[in-house]
Specification:
The structure holds two protein chains of two kinds.
Chain A lengths: L1 H33 L5 H24 L13
Chain B lengths: L1 H65 L1 H10 L3 H9 L6 H33 L5 H12 L8 H17 L4 H30 L5 H6 L1 H49 L5 H49 L5 H56 L10 H4 L2 H184 L11 H10 L4 H9 L2 H6 L4 H17 L10 H13 L19 H13 L3 H9 L3 H36 L6
Classes of the chains: A mainly alpha, B mainly alpha.
GO cellular component, one term (chain B): MICOS complex
Subcellular location (chain B): Mitochondrion inner membrane
Keywords (chain B): Coiled coil, Membrane, Mitochondrion, Mitochondrion inner membrane, Transmembrane, Transmembrane helix
């Protein structure tokens, strides 16, 4: 169903966001811990990175319909 | 156990009571029975006596019914029994019935008796009358006649009797009286035989049929008459014979007496025998007187019987029965012959009597003379005894002389008397002659009269006989003529009948032919009519049949159509029903089956086929959602569409998403707004559209809602895409189905057909 698609997209989006956030957070934490001496900024950065990625994915996912796909036609 | 005992006691008590009760009625019964016994014995006695009486009465009546003689006896002896019998059995059987057969039977015994008589008597004269000449002549004649063809008629029988009588009468010698003496007993024996025969006849034939009796009335009369005649004839013959016999006996007695007298007169017999002679004479005299008396009696009786017979003959003559005439004639002849014989015998007796008278007179005179002589002798010789027989031995000479002188004197006297007598002889003779003449004349007259009468009778009888013969001859001739005429008549009749028969036959044939023709024509007409009607009927029937067939065919077609329509309708209904199988969230069953059925059912129907094929594939394969589910889904769609109302190709970032969401949250509007009749461009707002669609769908108008939803643009459109598709599908299917059902209904009504 098309309406379910939106929901699904949103679910995916949220899941992705969660994952990305978690991952970012995790990575951030890791990076922060590992590389950046428990600074918060990698966590935030990671989290932000994650969220951002998630946002972008979500957006793209939601926008996928309207994006025009082109193909280069081969010259004959 | 106690209970058992108690039960036993109860039973015993009950029995006791019942026994008592039983005993009482027994006693009562006994009493009643004793009373009843005595009563019943009395009753038995009464009943037995009644039974006996009734039985006796019934038996009497039954036997009286069977034996009329017994009935007659009882009627005679018991008074009022005749009434009882009449009541019970009806009138007594008439005695006339028996008389029918009696004369017939009488004739036969009489014949038999006469035959036997004839044979007997003929044998007797033949045996005994060998001396007399006429006897063998008559006897053989009688003998010849007796074994001759058995005399069946009364005439011949009476002729036999008459013959016998005359035979008897004409035999004057000694044997004749013997036969005549025996004949009456023989005849009486014969009569007794007759009488004996009568009785068994009566007993053998007690009753006769009524019809036979009626038919034989005349015969009975004449037979009765004949019987009476026969009877009277028999009786008269008997009495006549008796009379004749008596007369003959008298004759013989007279003759004997006269002989004896003559012998007695004769002085040549010795004196011893004279006394015996005189005794015999006395005996003969007494005999003669007795015989005379008997003869007189018999004669009177015979005369009476002859008168009776003549009376009977007259009465029978007056009765005018033609067939009895010969019998009457025969009876008359017999009567006449009997009279004749009787008269002859009477005359003989009279002559004998006169002779006897003469002889007696002579004897008297002789006696007188003797007495006178005796007296004179006694006067002359008183000492001489009267017995002059012994005179010759004991008389002396004086006595003798005186006797001779007396004798001489007597002789002289006698001579003188003789001379005187001679002188007066002539006168005496004349006187005597005169007397004799007178007497002779009288006798002659008498004889003449009797002879005349006899001859008259003879003549009459001859005449009658001749008349009878002539009558018979005439009758025979008449009969022959009549027969001839009858023959001629029959011939004529036959001819006429033949002709008539021919005519009638022809007529009948003609009539028959005409009738046959008529009948044939009628029959032909009828058959033709029948055929015509039949043909008509057949044609009509055929036409009807054809019509019926056509009707049936059309009906079949119509039925077929109807069936098809019905099937279509049913299948459409099935389809409709399958639409109902849609659940809340899942679609219906695939409509393929139902639609397939529809397609099958309306194979020949293009419209339906078109319609059936118009159903979208998706619905066929997958089924459609129900309106309710769509409606439910619409809510989601509406929410979602409201949330992504701002999103379209240009605005589709996440931020826009957030904004549209915010918009949907913050925008307050009526959920349901009645859509206007015409859509203006400002109505193409998502929210409005959704509101319109909501309103429509809430009112059940999916189509309008779909229309409105179709006007969505952007992401809303994309979101509602599926729903729309589904709605479109549903709508399409429903439309087709509704069309189909409408069509099916229309077809089912039977009157409309899609062109």
């Amino acid at each position: 169903m098309s309406e379910k698609e939106f929901g699904q997209k949103w679910d995916r989006c949220l899941a992705d966001c969660a994952v990305k956030f978690g991952t970012g957070l995790g990575l951030g934490i890791v990076f922060s811990v590992v590389f950046f001496k428990r600074r918060t900024w990698p966590i935030v950065f990671g989290t932000g990175l994650g969220l951002g990625m998630a946002y972008s994915n979500c957006q793209n996912d939601l926008r996928s319909r309207y994006v025009l796909h082109s193909k280069v036609a081969k010259e004959q | 156990m106690l209970r058992v005992c108690w039960k036993g006691a109860h039973a015993a008590a009950r029995q006791c009571v019942c026994g008592k009760v039983k005993a009482h009625p027994l006693q009562l019964c006994r009493r009643y029975s004793t009373a009843g016994d005595s009563g019943s014995t009395a009753g038995k006695i009464v009943a037995a006596s009644l039974l006996t009486v009734g039985g006796g009465l019934g038996g009497t009546i039954l036997y009286a019914k069977w034996d009329p003689k017994f009935r007659a006896n009882v009627e005679k002896s018991v008074p009022y029994s005749d009434q009882l019998f009449e009541m019970a059995l009806g009138p007594p059987p008439p005695p006339l019935v028996t008389l029918q057969k009696k004369p017939v039977r009488v004739i036969e015994p009489l014949q038999i008796s006469s035959l036997s008589e004839a044979s007997k008597e003929s044998k007797q004269p033949k045996a005994k009358a060998k001396k007399s000449d006429p006897a063998p002549v008559e006897a053989p004649a009688a003998v010849e006649e007796a074994p001759a063809p058995t005399p069946q008629t009364l005439k011949e029988a009476s002729a036999e009797a008459a013959h016998i009588i005359s035979a008897i009468g004409e035999v004057p010698s000694v044997p004749a009286p013997g036969t005549s003496d025996e004949s009456p007993p023989g005849h009486t024996a014969a009569d007794e035989e007759c009488k004996d025969h009568h009785e068994p006849v009566l007993k053998e034939r007690p009753a006769e049929e009524v019809t036979a009796r009626l038919a034989q009335q005349d015969k009975a009369e004449q037979d009765a008459l004949a019987g009476l005649q026969v009877e009277s004839l028999g009786s008269t013959a008997k009495t006549t014979l008796q009379a004749i016999g008596a007369q003959e006996a008298a004759l013989t007695a007279i003759a004997a007496h006269t002989n004896k007298l003559k012998e007695a007169m004769d002085s040549q017999t010795p004196p011893d025998e004279k006394s015996s002679q005189w005794k015999a004479l006395n005996e003969a005299l007494s005999e003669r007187t007795r015989a005379m008396e008997e003869a007189e009696e018999a004669l009177l009786k015979a005369k009476g019987e002859l008168e009776n017979l003549s009376g009977v003959i007259n009465s029978s003559k007056q009765s005018k029965i033609n067939t009895a005439r010969p019998q009457i004639l025969a009876a008359e002849e017999n009567l006449h012959s009997m009279i004749v014989d009787l008269d002859k015998v009477v005359t003989k007796v009279q002559t004998a009597q006169t002779e006897a008278k003469i002889v007696s007179q002579y004897s008297e005179l002789v006696n007188e003379a003797k007495a006178q002589f005796q007296q004179e002798l006694a006067n002359i010789t008183p000492e001489i005894q009267a017995n002059w027989k012994r005179l010759s031995g004991k008389l002396s000479a004086d006595d003798l002389n005186s006797l001779i002188a007396h004798a001489h004197r007597r002789i002289d006297q006698l001579n003188r008397e003789l001379a005187e007598q001679r002188v007066r002889e002539q006168i005496h003779i004349e006187v005597a002659l005169e007397q004799q003449k007178l007497e002779d004349q009288k006798a002659l007259e008498r004889a003449v009269v009797s002879a005349l009468e006899h001859s008259r009778e003879d003549m009459r009888l001859e005449q009658e006989k001749k008349a009878q013969e002539v009558r018979e001859v005439m009758e025979a001739e008449m009969r022959t003529q009549l027969r001839r005429q009858a023959a001629a008549h029959t011939d004529h009749l036959r001819d006429v009948l033949k002709v008539q028969e021919q005519e009638l036959r022809e007529e009948a044939q003609e009539i028959l032919n005409s009738k046959m023709m008529e009948q044939e024509t009628h029959y032909r007409r009828l058959t033709q009519e029948q055929l015509d009607t039949f043909t008509l009927d057949m044609n009509a029937a055929y036409a009807r049949l054809k019509g019926i067939e056509e009707a049936i065919d059309s009906h079949v077609i119509a039925e077929e159509e109807a069936r098809k329509a019905h099937q279509l309708w049913l299948s459409v209904e099935a389809l409709n029903y399958t639409l109902k199988s849609a659940g809340a969230d899942f679609p219906t069953e695939p409509l393929e089956g139902a639609v397939g059925v529809i397609k099958e059912n309306c194979a020949g129907n293009e419209f339906a086929q078109a319609l059936a094929t118009a159903i979208p594939e998706e619905s066929l394969s997958r089924g459609i959602y129900s309106e309710a589910s769509l409606r439910a889904r619409f809510f989601d769609i509406r929410r979602l569409a409201r949330r992504v109302a701002l999103i379209d190709e240009t605005r589709n970032s996440l931020y826009q998403y957030f904004l549209s969401y915010l918009q949907s949250v913050l925008l307050f509007e009526r959920e349901q707004v009645a859509p206007p009749a015409k859509l203006a461009p400002e109505d193409l707002d998502t929210f409005k559209l959704l509101a319109y669609a909501n309103y429509s769908i809430e009112r059940g108008d999916l189509e309008l809602a779909a229309k409105f939803v179709n006007q969505l643009r952007g992401e809303s459109q994309r979101v509602a895409q599926d729903w729309l598709k589904e709605a479109r599908l549903t709508l399409e299917t429903k439309q087709v189905i509704s069309l189909l059902s409408a069509y099916a209904n229309a077809v089912g009504l039977g009157t409309t057909q899609a062109p």
